[in-house]
Amino acid sequence: xxxxxxxxxxxxxxxxxxxxxxxxxxxxxxxxxxxxxxxxxxxxxxxxxxxxxxxxxxxxxxxxxxxxxxxxxxxxxxxxxxxxxxxxxxxxxxxxxxxxxxxxxxxxxxxxxxxxxxxxxxxxxxxxxxxxxxxxxxxxxxxxxxxxxxxxxxxxxxxxxxxxxxxxxxxxxxxxxxxxxxxxxxxxxxxxxxxxxxxxxxxxxxxxxxxxxxxxxxxxxxxxxxxxxxxxxxxxxxxxxxxxxxxxxxxxxxxxxxxxxxxxxxxxxxxxxxxxxxxxxxxxxxxxxxxxxxxxxxxxxxxxxxxxxxxxxxxxxxxxxxxxxxxxxxxxxxxxxxxxxxxxxxxxxxxxxxxxxxxxxxxxxxxxxxxxxxxxxxxxxxxxxxxxxxxxxxxxxxxxxxxxxxxxxxxxxxxxxxxxxxxxxxxxxxxxxxxxxxxxxxxxxxxxxxxxxxxxxxxxxxxxxxxxxxxxxxxxx
Length: 477
Ligand code: ADQ
Description:
With 477 residues, the chain is α/β, with parallel strands linked by helices.
């Protein structure tokens, strides 16, 4: 430990995963995934620290260094993992913020635990932050931290970013603890969202629930101004672009196609196994294309990769059974010796293998019922310097705001999904290239570096003075 830090990240999980070597010794490895990739370099440059849970229940660890980052573990008991993480975060907030596509659970015990754990994160951050430090809190598991931290350390500059959608007022309104959550977020100087719509839902809620006036992006409290703004997250475009040009990835992509029986079209889905991702909807559409003869036998293979996720939450266990039943049915009806239309994998994949799959896929199918952004769509685009490939993308993914040249679909409309999947499969190379080129321009310009630096620049820049409040209209914004 080098003492207190002038820059802190506070997130549910630390930026590292523990791996056990064959000889039984434990070591840490930087976690894969966008957030860590984006933030680790900033943290290293600013000599910052990362506060978060290390992933094992009932274990206390001392702060340690890894990969030039200082890591401060926050302990959680097994009961807290159940009530705070699986409970309030993933059985209450997650479905509530995703258009209630599954019914949220409202349980006082879960809420109490969420509050208690948020307090612990706030205390850990308060103890680790230097005078006037900048603290960036991440995501829906920690929405009470900004206000708790401000109370402990009014000298800090606090930012918050929500990775999932912020729901419309009428949905949020159901939450028995709605006021506490909104007040929690208002402890930040800057609250970031994926889309302008989320930011505007939040401002509207502050007005309706707390009677706070706002003007433009700013919400006026008695003594402070809270800025709200959209910062669409992105991927490390150039790293992926470089990776897929490497001979071993190109060779692997060719090999995958052969292993799949060299069909004319390879369609791909890559998701955490989550009911918000619309996996069932896309498989249903694909099954119907086989059934009604739009696709001839052997013409197309759908590879669906579903990373195991939140397996102790009931809703996720049911989903897994449903998907596996559906895959079995479709394959049962349409497979023949040597041909299986859906290749389903309930596994996590290494970075290189995933890149090779993206490169192989002629059509990427991303059909969430609601998604904050969806990085998979942007990863696919980053992997296609060959300008080949069509992206079928749900209108309900945040990414649809930027990737207008995708084959946009309403995932609730099975005919629409079928039609757009067919359009992507039947498109000419010229048409695919035209769309892909524009989307690549967008993702390469707004990459993950830009996301992090725009957020931090906004957090560093001063907001308006509270005096401006007088001119803030109740209805403007
Ligand atoms: P997620 O809901 O997890 O993220 P997404 O944005 O698609 O969704 O990110 C998933 C990540 O996991 C991608 O980087 C993908 O490559 C990786 N991944 C998926 N399946 C995998 C597999 N089988 N093996 C290995 N890696 C796999 C939340 C929000 C999103 C928001 C992100 C970032 O729900 O809307 O885009 O945070 O803010």
